[in-house]
Amino acid sequence: MTTVNDSHPEEEEGMIIDNGHPDEYETQHTSSEDSLTPYANKTLKPDDQIRMYVMREAKAKLEYGSSVSEIEEHLRNAAALIGDELEELFINGEEVYFAGTKEGSGNGEFPTLRTIPLFVTADSKAHCEIGLTNAGGYRGCRRCFLGGTYVPEKRHYYYGNFRYRYRYPVESRTAVSNRRYGLQVDAATSEAERKRMSKETGVTGECIFYRLYDLCGFDPVNDLIIDAMHAMILNMVKTELEVHLLADLGPNADLPIEERTPALGGLLDRKMLADALQRMEWTTEMKDGRIPRLNLQYHGKGKLGHWKSEELGKFITIAPVILRGLIPKQAYNCFCLLSEMHHLVFSERMRIEGWQPEHLDYFKKLLWKHAIMFEELYGLSSCTENLEYSLHMPEDIVRFSTLDNYWCYVFERDSSVRRATLADIQLA
User: Fold this and answer.
1) Residue 238: closest CA among 296, 310, 295
2) For residue 73, is pLDDT > 70?
3) At what angle do helices 270-279 and 309-322 cross, to 10 degrees?
4) Suppose 126 and one of 19, 76, 199, 249 were both cysteines; which one would form an S-S bond, judging by CB atoms 3.0 to 4.6 Å apart?
5) CB-based contact 385:136 (threshold 8 Å)
6) Mean pLDDT, all residues of the chain
7) How wide is the angle at C-alpha 359 spanned by C-alphas 357 and 360, nearest 5°?
8) pLDDT band at 426; cut points 50, 70, 90
9) By CB neighbour count within 10 A (0-12 exposed, 13-18 middle, 19+ buried), where does 173 fall?
C-alpha cells in the first residue's frame, strides 16, 4: 500500500471541538423537515447544535430499526453543520465588539475576525465518527496502516508485535491517501463492497474536514488530536489497574506474590491495596479534590468503584510507592513506566518551559518500552487500539507542543454545565 506525501500548507489559529455523548440525553423525535428548527434561533455553541441534531436523529433511527448506513448518513448530515460554520468563519468572519470601540472602526463598522481551525480534540470514538475511520477494525489505527490480529475468542482485533515494530515502523497515513480511500469507499456500488473496502483501508468515507483541507490546509489525519486524558488516564492506567492487576485472583491467591501470573488471574489483592491507600498520608495539594479510596463493600461494575480521571491521576502519581511489594516485579516495572510517563506529561515545568528534543525522545522510549512489556506480560488480546494510539502522542507534541494545550480535561469539567443547559431546551 502506497501513500502520497502531503504538501498542503498549514495555517494555525486555534479552534477546539469537543465530543458529546448522545445516549446520555432524553430526546423527542420530529420529522426531518423541521429537524433543525428547534435550535435555529438558540444561542448555542456549534458542538451543542451538532449534539442536539445527532441525539434526535440517530436515536430515532435506532428506535425505528433503520440500517447502520442510514444512521451513518444522519451523522454525516449533522457533522456537515460543523463544516458550514467553520467555512463561514474563515471566509467571511464574524463582526466583534471590543470594549472602547463603541463607534466601531471609524466608518461605523466593527472589526471582523476570521478563524482557522488548528485541531480537533476528543476521545478516539468521536474522532472515528467525525473523521470517518474505523474504530477497532483490521486497520484500526487512524495514524498508520497497521493491520490488527483477529482473536476469535474475543471477536475483536488487537494490535501488538511492538518489539518488531519498534525496529521496523509501519507506514504512516496522510491526508491524501485517506482522501483517496474515502472517495473509493463512497463510490462503492454495494454495501458488501463498501464494508470490504472500509476493512482493507480503515476509512469509511470522505470526511467533512477535507473541505477545510482544501480551504486552509487543515489535516484530517494529523490534526485530529489523540487526547492524553482519554488515551493515558481513562484507558491505559484504568485498564491495566482494573482489568489486569485487580482481576479476581483465582489460583494466584494461594501463590507467593512473585509467582503470580496473569494467566491464572489477577495480580493484586484488593484488600491489601485498600489498606495501603488508607494508610497513605496525602499532601495538602492531593487533598484538594477527590482522593482515591477503595470501598470493599462495592460490588458494582468494575473493581475501582466510581473512580474518575482525578482519582486515577492521583493514584498513578503515587503508584510506585503504593504497589511496591504488592504485585510481581515484572508487573510493577510495567506499571511504573506509566507513572513515569504521567509525571512527564503532567509536569508543571514541561508546561511552562515546553518540550525539548531530549524530553520527546525519552517520552517515546517510555511509550514503546511500556507497550513491549505490556504485550509480553498480558498477551496480545490485551493490546487494544488505545495502547496503539498512545505511541502516536509524541507526533502531536511536535506539532502542537505540550499536551495540556489540547487535552479534554477542561471540556469534561464543563460537560455537567452543558448537560443542564441542553436539558432545559425543549425540542419541538
Assistant:
1) 310
2) no
3) 90
4) 19
5) yes
6) 77
7) 65
8) very low
9) buried
How crowded is residue 148: how many other Cβ atoms within 10 Å of its Cβ? Answer: 23
pTM summary value: 0.75
* Closest alpha carbon to 218 in 78, 120, 77: 120
Residue with cell 491467591: 253
Phi and psi at 4, nearest 5°, equal -110, 130
Locus of grid cell 492521583: 314
What percentage of the chain carries pLDDT values higher than 90? 32
Residue type, 132: L
Residue with cell 477494525: 137
Q: What local confidence, expressed as pLDDT, does residue 412 receive?
A: 66
What does the alpha-carbon distance between residue 6 and residue 221 come to, in Å, rounded to a whole number? 11
More confident residue, 347 or 320: 320
C-alpha separations of 126 from 79, 132, 182, 247, 295 in Å: 11, 10, 18, 29, 32
Cα distance between residue 67 and residue 404, in whole Å? 39
Which has the higher per-residue pLDDT, 156 or 48?
Answer: 156
Residue with cell 443542564: 420
Q: Are the beta carbons of 346 and 310 closer than 8 angstroms?
A: no
Give, rounded to a whole angstrom, the gap between the first and last alpha carbons of the chain.
Answer: 49
CB 249 within 8 A of CB 269: yes
Give the Cα separation of 153 and 174 in Å (integer): 33
Q: How far is CA 47 from the centre of its chain?
A: 16
User: Which residues is 224 bridged to in the sheet?
Assistant: 120
What's the count of helices (H) and strands (E) in the chain, helices before strands? 18, 6
Question: Residue 297 corresponds to which cell in the numbers above?
Answer: 463493600
C-alpha cell at 388: 496503539
CA 387 from centre of chain: 11
Question: For residue range 165-188, what is the model confidence (pLDDT) as tens digits?
Answer: 999 999 999 999 999 999 999 999
Give the integer Cα–Cα distance in Å for 334 and 331. 5
Q: How far is 191 from 181, CA to CA, in rounded Å?
A: 16
H-helix segments, 105-262: 124-131, 162-167, 175-186, 191-201, 209-216, 228, 238
CA distances (Å), origin 378, targets 265, 348, 381, 384, 421: 11, 33, 8, 12, 43
For the record, the C-alpha cell of 92 comes out as: 467571511
